[in-house]
Design brief:
The protein has about 270 residues and is of the alpha/beta class. The chain has one domain: NAD(P)-binding Rossmann-like Domain (Rossmann fold, 3-Layer(aba) Sandwich), CATH 3.40.50. The protein has ten helices and six strands. Helix 4 packs across helix 6. The longest helix is centred in the middle third of the chain and has 25 residues.
């Protein structure tokens, strides 16, 4: 049921690839809650996904943009403002990619050119999006900017390799720009650390299924699904969370604060 939490709000949602992605589900929820927004993704990602179908369902348009390019971001904001008819109340950064993970390189054998690509796509693009938004003065007061992170930014998960470093950088950028944007425009900037989620990106990580099941047994509420994460993002876009900023918010069924679960103790007691 729609509560119109975002009625009259305008924004941009990045990274919707297919119906499994958090950004995709966020777009559907935002539309349901009365928001108007533009969808965007990198041109290469658009060829892989079905974002145009999502745009039709949400009664909006898609503007291709490479989030690592300042020129593309500026063009995205200019065209989005023209289409929507005003400045933005929310931005979702749902962008992440590691060539090292895709090609199976271990943390001790990273290709450093690929590392730089990982950082640029997965974290520095977040800074670039906010830098251009600030320079263009395109955010409304009390707006909300969200990025998607993961607990590997704070703890060691060997399979996450250089993406763990990228997520740590993403969270640092959220704090740095959260302070800056909060002082200048009352705009809040936060990240969400989501449970392991069966998205296209998530399932591409080696050993994902085993870890997904492990996290599910560790979490007293179980793994949070992508749709529930979308609900949380909508809440963060709404006026109900006006004074939450510069935070990394765990949305993981309690996994991040559980030392050991009874289910796992039972599993290992006879070893």
């Amino acid at each position: 049921m729609a509560e119109n939490l975002l009625k009259g709000k305008l924004g941009i949602i990045t990274g919707a690839l297919d119906e499994n992605s958090i950004a995709w589900k966020t777009a559907l929820k935002a539309h349901e809650q009365g928001a108007r927004f533009v969808l965007t993704n990198a041109p290469i990602a658009m060829r892989m996904g079905a974002i145009k179908e999502l745009a039709e369902e949400c009664k909006t348009i898609v503007i291709p943009a490479d989030a690592t390019s300042l020129e593309d971001i500026e063009k995205l904001y200019t065209e989005s403002k023209e289409y929507l008819g005003g400045n933005f109340d929310f931005l979702l950064h749902s962008i992440g990619m590691s060539p090292n993970i895709r090609k199976g390189r271990s943390y001790g054998d990273l290709n450093y050119d690929w590392v730089n690509k990982s950082y640029d796509v997965s974290a520095i693009s977040f800074h670039k999006m906010m830098h251009v938004a600030e320079r263009m003065d395109i955010m409304n007061e009390w707006g909300s900017i969200m990025g998607l992170s993961y607990i590997a930014a704070q703890r060691v998960y060997p399979f996450y390799t250089d993406m763990a470093d990228a997520k740590a950088l993403l969270e640092s950028i959220a704090r740095g720009y959260g302070y800056r944007f909060g002082k200048s425009k009352k705009v809040r900037v936060n990240t969400i650390s989501q449970s392991p989620t069966k998205t296209t990106a998530g399932t591409g990580i080696g050993g994902f299924d085993a870890f997904f099941n492990f996290a599910d047994k560790m979490s007293p509420l179980g793994n949070a699904p992508a749709e529930a994460c979308a609900d949380y993002i909508i809440t963060m876009f709404s006026d109900l969370t006006r004074y939450v900023t510069m935070q990394n918010l765990f949305h993981d069924g309690g996994y991040s604060t559980t030392g050991i679960s009874e289910e796992l103790m039972e599993q290992f007691k006879d070893l």
